[in-house]
Amino acid sequence: MSGRSGREGLKAVSVCDGSGQDGVSVDAVAGTCTFNSLRDRQAASPSGWTVSHSCWQVQEGPSGGWDASGSGPRRRGRRPCRRLRNQAGQFISVVTLFEVMARRRSSILAQGAPLGGQDVSGPGTRRRGRPPRKHRKRKVAITTEVTLFEMVALGKNSVQTAVEEWVQSYKVDRELALLDLISFFVQCCGCEGMVTAELYQSNQGQNVVHKMTEKFDQETGLYYKKFLAYPWILTIMWPEKLQNDFYPIVGPGPFWKRFRVNFCEFTELLVHQTHSSVLCDGHLMHTVICMLSGLTNSAVYSLRHTSSLAAMKLLTALASVNQGICTGRRTAQRLYEIESITKLKGRHKYYMELLDQRRHQFQNKPMAIDNIICALFKRTFVPRYRDISSDIRVICMGELGCWIRLYPDMFLDNNYLKYIGWMLYDKDASVRMKCILALKALYEKRESAMKLGLFFYKFKKRILSMTQDRQPEITSECMQLLRLISEHYVGVFSAMEYVFLFQFVYAAYRPMATAAGELICKRLLAPPPHEGFFGQEPPDEFDRNLQNMKTLIDFYLQGEFHRHVPYLVDGLWEAAPALVRNWECMTALLLEPRGGRQALTSQQERVLIEMLVAAVRQAAEGRPPAGRRLGKKAAREVDGTRRCREHANMSRHFVKVLPRLLSKFAADKEKVTPLLQIPQYCNLDVYDMDGLGSYLDAALLELDCLVQRHSDVAVLEACARAYGTYCDEGGSAHCQAAPACSRLVDMLVDVLTPLLDVFIQNERQGLFLGHGEMGRICSTLRRLAAFYSAHDLSSWNLYEKMDSLLTFRRHQGSLPTEVVHCALQCTYYALLWQIVAATDRLPPQEVLLDLRKRLMKFCLVCRVYLNHQSKVLSEKAFILLCDLLLILSHQGPEEDTGLGLLFFVPDHVLQCKLLTFVREHVFLEDTGAAGPSRVYKEEDADELHELFHRRNMLAVVCKLIVCNVLEMSAAADIYQFYLKHYHHFGDIIKETMTRTRQNDRLRNALSLLLCLQQLFQKHVDTYGLGYDPIEFICGPFYSIRLLARRFALTLGFDRARDAAHLIHRRGLAFAFSESPVPEEEARQRFPNLSFLLVLAEFSCKIPPAERQAALAQFQDSIPEGVPVFGEGDMNPMLVYRKSLMRTDYVAQGEEEPAANPFDAICKDSKRPQELPVGTCSTWTPDTLASSSAGDRETRNSSKGQKSKRDVFDVDFLSSEDSENSSNEDVDVEGISVHEGASD
User: What backbone phi and psi angles, to 5 degrees, belong to 56?
Assistant: First the structure.
């Protein structure tokens, strides 16, 4: 800010900045002010600055010490310093206000004084400590001025001082102080040119309007901005190249971030310091409002952004001050009324006059500030809340929410709330988020929520639809907002709307699911009111939990939502911990005897068991289920000690209850299978610590009974994993569980051995076993296969028995499919355990050779069973073979020693056999017709299981391609079905493309090209050669072009250049290849020429700078004798040439050449389809994509049209607006900015 000393007697004051150039010049008589920016001053004096601030005169001695006004202790230690950059990129130190900002030693050296810190006794020597007194006496005073911008840049401590000094200067000379303030705001906008101010004469009349311009002078290369800031007409000039350059508010780095904070604090302190003195003098705020409104209407973004931020912060400060005044007025009025009551008693009569005087002080000031707020609101907020820049719209909406909270007496009105409602339709997510957060803060207080009933009625449909927003953060905040609304208003949502909101507990975004869980707890699981007559006690907490658990189970069963119990439990994990973590309540319901008061139905028991297992898993692992994404602000993990204590309590409870649960549900395989997962999530050390060994014996006994009782594969595998958990080495249950498991396996092997001997002997004699004996063989093999998957049973030598069965099948006769299925499974597990043993400890070479022989033999057996007539058996052989190939390909290098002996890669014949199997068993003809709208129901469980099985087979073979077990060119046979079977297998194929591109971009590009060539060859063989445009656009050939377009998108955006060039080179060679059979007709001579239409889809991946070279290469590769096309034929060469000529920038007046003649024909007939806005519709990924595209077209088509929100002072409750305001989308991009402010 400008110094004030010695200014009264001068006509003009010129202050030197230390470099011989004037930094600020003020002519008080002519009324003209010019200043150079901070950067210019830095560049002019890079060595340092000198400071003089009002009454502070800084003096510096040769030692570098200083004192203020010639006295004061010397400050020890390192001076606090901040750094700025000048235009040359050099750092300039900026110290605090009470220190010297620049140290100019030249004046000191001119008097013969040495540099500070250097002794005169000799050069190069340096004395530590305080210099001699004769040096300290020699001081030179250097003074200059500090602008407001520099003081705000110094730091937070100087902002308060800057405001106070400016207020004092305003009281002395308000015209000059206002010029300083205007210069500060303009300098914060990043203007590096000059600002001039000419006095406004009222007799100019209409000529003033013509001066309010913003234009570019081509002769000088400067931008001019003229606007009225009474009593001046300000002119800002800046170079064209700096129009969108750096400006302080958005500067990078911590310094400029602090500057933005200091800038906001300065604007707020300016109001707080002047509200009791000069704020309402009719001159200060009038000038500031004129200046800010002129800057906010600028087309330059930096001016518009900075001034909008300043205006919004000023409004925030004004609202805070006025609210404080209103609060003080009400307090004074209440005190006055209280004193008036006690007046009759003669107490504190002298206090009445003081209170009455205080009341009158507060009487007129709020009205004056309200007028200032209204003027600033209409001239800055109203034009800028719909600005083309989302940053400015975010500032407006965020501050509007603050105004409503700070000053509800004025802003908590429908005339201001309507702006938040309109901007709920904004296309930018950050603006919508600010609106939701503002509403959420209002609904958190019941006083303000009760005044928002009409607002919610108007925008209810939009708020409900925002639960399906694209941004997951907005959906979670919106759900929390709806929960608050439901707490304040009774009957605000219908039953169908609650059902719509409850379904989000299954959302993939965890904060959204948690918010929906909170709503369920508030509206569905709320504790019932106290009931009963004549002192009857209400139900206790345990009974309420039982009732809430039943309600939750019924909610899951009756809701037509996803059948994902773990997602439901995780959604209620934070919202209802007393319910989903109440192990006693869950187990009490499950153990309730049949016919009891709290007994559940069979279906309810199944759901409760799934909930129990999901809760146990999450309590043990401490993470949400797979597929659920955490928010950006994920909740902090629970303390380790507390979590271990809860886990120990849970384990102690379930080791006691689990035997009883297994005993009760032993006959039901659907209920007992999930219960068998509980041991792997429990801490089994509690058996020894708490003396619970008897419960371990009971659990092992129940497991043994389950293995002997059931023959279902799922139950047997769950029992095997439970035994594996108990038999874990080092665990407390190992000593008892391991012998029990060994006895069980011994019993199964003893049962199987005589049955196999009898079976083989009878088969050799031509006899057949009965169904009973064959069923016993199958059930025993199934049990052994299940235990083989979790336990190493190599000591029982089961491989020899299984190998004899498979060998007998090949040489002697046929075996039942179930026997062969189990034999293949057992053999596979036996080989895997042998590979694991060889990997852990390298065996002799003879053992490895024998193992390799067994592996090759098993691969041959699986290869034979691929053609088996049984679909189940052939698919099982395919999966086992692919898994084994994947394992063997990673065992080691191709060497003849060590694990290299086990290395095996399939040959070309085996690869073709695997791909043929995939085409025949995965890509069935009837699976491509089902679209994304297909909803599978419970009766479609078999179809879903089959689809899952086919997806598994495709994933297995794609894994072989990604891991380079199969050649990458083999992927071409799978890529052919990308579009046809997109809804069933599109995600797997797309992930395969991504992984192969990460492995090798060029080989992946060749595989894509090979796929297109194969499809093109099939098309030519089927339909022959033809060049009809309709056939290429609408016929079967169009699917190949569409597939090529999808392939081009999968190449990526960063490094697709080399791959695109390779595709074009190889594609041109294929297109211009001649037929091996000599043909007389030119079109028969080049049968692949139509492939150029497919190749044209990859032209977009060639960089525009290289398309000319690609076009030249295309011209050079055209052979002689290329056919000539007629007018009615499609010319592939012309289409391909135009695709290479397409660029992103088209000259004005020219049209971009169409890559397809049919596209040019249909170009005029295409019209953007208008979509209904503001409606709550069902969301699907496909409708999202289509609606976003339509939305863009609608917005683009609406540019230039008249805005529907041109009148801003219209009543929010008017009849015209009441019907359409909630359904209208405020198009902030299509609305023209007020007074030429469009950027």
Answer: -85, 125
Q: Tell which of 712, 732, 760 closes a domain.
A: 712
| Residue 146 counted as domain residue | yes
From the list 612, 625, 622, the residue with the least C-alpha distance to 653 is 612
pLDDT value for 593: 85
Give whole-number Cα distances, 900 to 551, 832, 894, in Å.
Answer: 61, 16, 5
Q: Which of 1105, 1129, 1144 is the last residue of a domain?
A: 1144
* Residue with the two structure tokens 């006004």: 69
Tell me the pLDDT tens digit for each residue of 287-308: 899 889 888 888 888 889 999 9
Q: Please name the residues in contact with 1128: beta carbons below 8 A apart, sequence gap of 6 or more.
A: 1028, 1029
> Are 166 and 187 within one domain?
yes
233 - beta bridge partners?
198, 228
Number of compact structural domains in the chain: 5
DSSP E strands: which ranges in 17-155?
Answer: 22-27, 32-35, 52-53, 56-60, 66-68, 81-85, 91-95, 140-141
Place of tokens 């379904």: 503
Q: Do 705 and 594 fall within a single domain?
A: yes
SS3 965: coil
Rounded Cα distance between 795 and 807, Å, is 22
Mark whether 460 and 565 lie in a shared domain: no
| Residue with the two structure tokens 């380790």 | 640
Range of the domain at 959: 911-924+941-988
Nearest to 1122 by CA among 1081, 1157, 1091: 1081
CB 369 within 8 A of CB 318: yes
Q: What are the CA-CA distances from residue 1024 to residues 42, 939, 1044, 1125 (Å)?
A: 77, 45, 20, 17
108-119 pLDDT per residue, tens = 333 343 433 344
pLDDT at 637: 53
Q: Is residue 772 part of a domain?
A: no
Instruction: Please choose, from the candidates 290, 314, 32, the residue with its C-alpha nearest in 3D space to the C-alpha of residue 176.
Output: 32
Same domain for 483 and 614, yes or no, is no
Q: How are strands ordered across the β-sheet holding 222-229?
A: 194-199, 232-239, 222-229, 214-217
Angle between helices 871-888 and 908-921 (to 10 degrees): 140
Mean pLDDT of the chain: 76
Summarize the confidence of residues 921-943 as an average pLDDT. 66
Asked if the bond preceding 231 is cis, omega within 30° of 0, the reply is: yes
CATH classification at residue 466: 1.25.10.10
154-174 burial code (b ≥16 CB/10 A, e <16): bbeebbebbbebbbebbeebe
599 lies in some domain: yes
Largest Cα span, the chain: 133
- Contact predicate 790/721, CB 8 Å: yes
What distance in Å separates the CA atoms of residue 1053 and residue 985, rounded to the nearest whole number? 24
Cα 56 from Cα 70, distance rounded (Å): 10
> Position 1069: which residue type?
A
Examine residue 873 and state whether it is found in any structural domain, yes or no. no
First to last CA, the chain: 32
Least Cα distance to 1000 among 1047, 960, 962 occurs for 962
Residue 158 shares a structural domain with residue 179:
yes
Residues in the chain: 1239
The predicted model scores a pTM of 0.74
Report which residue type is found at 243. Answer: Q
Question: What DSSP letter does each residue of 298-366 carry, written as one string?
Answer: -SSHHHHHHHHHHHHHHHHHHHHHHHHHHHHHHHHHHHHHHHHHHGGGT-STHHHHHHHHHHHHTTSHH
Contact, 1004 vs 996, CB < 8 A? Answer: yes
Rg (CA), the chain: 41
The Cα 325–Cα 485 span in angstroms is 31
Whether 443 and 360 share a structural domain: no
Q: Please state, in angstroms and rounded to a whole number, the distance separating the CA atoms of residues 138 and 399.
A: 54
Question: DSSP readout, 711-749?
Answer: --HHHHHHHHHHHHHHT-TTSTTHHHHHHHHHHHHHHHH
- In the three-class reduction of DSSP (H, G, I as helix; E, B as strand; rest coil), residue 65 is classed as coil
